[in-house]
């Protein structure tokens, strides 16, 4: 099963919700599909999905690291659960770069989500400067250290290089494959790793066709029912091993492929082939 998670970011409106969700319901999409919506739309989306007994999962794009209290403007993990969320994005590159989310804050959010029984989709990815400086892998190791000791079926990692987000450059198959294998090497083979960064209907087959890719995190293309549906259908076909378009020739030298294996000390080597129902 390959996951498709739509991240609306701060886009859309209630009309879009009422046009996209029924279209997705009509197509009978299942539990491999999730929507991470702006907070105000969660309740309405939850009602629509529940009324249709849909297996599509609902998620949030952020969560507070605190359980409750005087944190004006924040939303707790327990509140997200009350409104039907099963998953939450943690550490999205836009949270880190635009809102100054530090690794300490991200760690708190990760643990708040896990503690409340939410399924965190933990976003990691190097900046362009880190990549060009040959520091991409080290950046990844530092971020992945937060997951030390957490069973691999309790979360997913989303590899989202910030330079590939927002319709600019798309990572090549070789970029994605190398980094996904590296993340699995660090955290254990059962780790689910999704890719995010300019995934559209026209390149989804190229990304989802890679064995190392367990799903995609989709931004802009999730705002169009036809684009999103096409990506979901591609994911379904790829999960069933149907042939996909040939991979493009990889760009050389973008990823620092040399270097030692980075297994973290004390990490569990849980080989969980199954995607826990989140
Ligand atoms: P785009 O698909 O718009 O590049 O966004 C990717 C992303 O940030 C998903 O979380």
- Write the CATH fold name: TIM Barrel
Strand order of the largest sheet: 1-2-3-4-5-6-7-8
Bound molecules: 1,3-dihydroxyacetonephosphate
Number of strands: 8
Strand/helix succession:
EHEHEHEHHEHHEHEHEH
Sketch the major β-sheet: 8 strands, parallel, barrel
> CATH homologous superfamily - what is it?
Aldolase class I
Please state the second-level CATH architecture. Alpha-Beta Barrel
User: Can you tell me the CATH class?
Assistant: Alpha Beta
Report the sheet-strand fraction: 5-15%
- Average pLDDT for all residues: 87
Percent range of helical residues: 25-40%
- Would you identify the regions where 5 or more consecutive residues have pLDDT less than 50? 244-275
Q: Distance N terminus to C terminus?
A: 13 Å
As a whole number of angstroms, the C-alpha radius of gyration is: 18 Å
Large-scale geometry: globular
Structural class category: alpha/beta
Number of helices: 10
Number of domains: 1
Catalytic activity: D-glyceraldehyde 3-phosphate = dihydroxyacetone phosphate
Subunit structure: Homodimer.
Enzyme class: isomerase
Function: Involved in the gluconeogenesis. Catalyzes stereospecifically the conversion of dihydroxyacetone phosphate (DHAP) to D-glyceraldehyde-3-phosphate (G3P).
């Amino acid at each position: 099963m390959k996951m498709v998670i739509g991240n609306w970011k701060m886009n859309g409106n209630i009309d879009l919700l009422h046009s996209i969700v029924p279209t997705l319901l009509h197509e009978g999409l299942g539990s491999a599909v999730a929507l991470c919506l702006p907070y105000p739309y969660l309740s309405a989306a939850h009602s629509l999905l529940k009324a249709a007994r849909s297996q599509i999962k609902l998620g949030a794009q952020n969560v507070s690291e605190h359980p409750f209290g005087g944190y004006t403007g924040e939303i707790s993990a327990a509140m997200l659960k009350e409104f039907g969320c099963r998953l939450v994005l943690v550490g999205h590159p836009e949270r880190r770069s635009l809102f100054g989310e530090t690794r300490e804050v991200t760690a708190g959010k990760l643990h708040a989500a896990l503690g409340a029984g939410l399924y965190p989709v933990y976003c990691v990815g190097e900046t362009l400067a880190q990549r060009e400086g040959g520091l991409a892998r080290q950046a990844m190791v530092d971020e992945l250290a937060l997951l030390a000791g957490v069973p691999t079926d309790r979360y997913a990692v989303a590899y989202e290089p910030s330079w590939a987000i927002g319709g600019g450059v798309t990572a090549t198959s070789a970029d994605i494959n190398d980094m996904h294998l590296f993340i699995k090497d660090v955290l254990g083979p059962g780790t689910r790793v999704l890719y995010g960064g300019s995934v559209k209907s026209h390149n989804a087959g190229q990304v989802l066709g890679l064995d190392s890719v367990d799903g995609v995190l989709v931004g802009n293309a999730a705002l169009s029912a036809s684009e999103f549906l096409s990506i979901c259908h591609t994911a379904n076909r790829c999960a069933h091993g149907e042939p996909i378009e040939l991979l493009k020739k990889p760009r050389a030298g973008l990823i620092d492929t040399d270097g030692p294996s980075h297994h973290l000390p004390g990490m569990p080597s849980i080989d969980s082939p199954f995607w826990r129902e989140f």
